[in-house]
Amino acid sequence: MKKIEYEEKINHLFDEWKKARPEYELGENCFTHDGIANFDNYNKSKPKILFLLKENWDRDYDLRSGIDVGRGKDFNLNIARWRQIIRDLYIDRN
């Protein structure tokens, strides 16, 4: 899949989710945009690593902005550490 196709599909999916749950656009609830932070790097990477996170700690936060931006830097640092551990174990195995 090319980057433009991915962006079109994920944005369409976000729109569908928001329409289905309009309460997440109001008040204390919010919708967190997530997905691949850097599509080109993701396509080149081996192994491809997916982190599933339970919830967002900040309103209107776009998790695709990268692991070193915004609040929660300690949390993001831990994600970066886990990523490196997984990569090191994978590379050592091969």
Descriptive notes:
- The relative contact order is 0.12.
- The model has no long low-confidence stretch (mean pLDDT 76).
- The protein has one domain (3-93).
- By secondary structure, it is an all-alpha fold.
- It is built from three helices and no strands.
- Helices cover 48% and strands 0% of the residues.
- It is flat.
Specify the structural class. mainly alpha
Low-confidence stretches: none
Helix content: 40-55%
Quote the average pLDDT. 76
- Our count of domains comes out at 1
| Shape annotation | flat
Radius of gyration using CA atoms only: 15 Å
Beginning-to-end CA distance, first to last residue: 26 Å
Order of helices and strands: HHH
- Main beta-sheet annotation: none
Number of helices: 3
The percent range for strand residues is under 5%
Number of strands: 0
Could you give the topology of this structure?
Elements: H1 3-20, H2 39-44, H3 73-93
List the keywords.
3 helices, mainly alpha, 48% helix, 0% strand, flat, 94 residues
Could you provide a short overview of the structure?
Helices cover 48% and strands 0% of the residues. It is built from three helices and no strands.
